[in-house]
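re the bet — no i am not wrong, look at it urself. input seq straight from the record:
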Amino acid sequence: MQDEPTNEPESRQEQRMAALSGGLDMVEKALAPPTMTERCAKLCEERDALKAKVADLERVNKALE
């Protein structure tokens, strides 16, 4: 009967350690530099946004001429 009370704290400690490990994994992932795919996707989004701005400015320029 003494095994059960000692197993329960170990189980809680294991759960706590697993939760801390999971949290650490999330922090490491958040702090990791972006992958090339992520960087390329971000640059493509920025490029597309700039193209849209250029198109808007060209329309405004034509309207002012």
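see?? The radius of gyration is 27 Å. told u. also Residues 41 and 47 are 10 Å apart (CA to CA). so pay up
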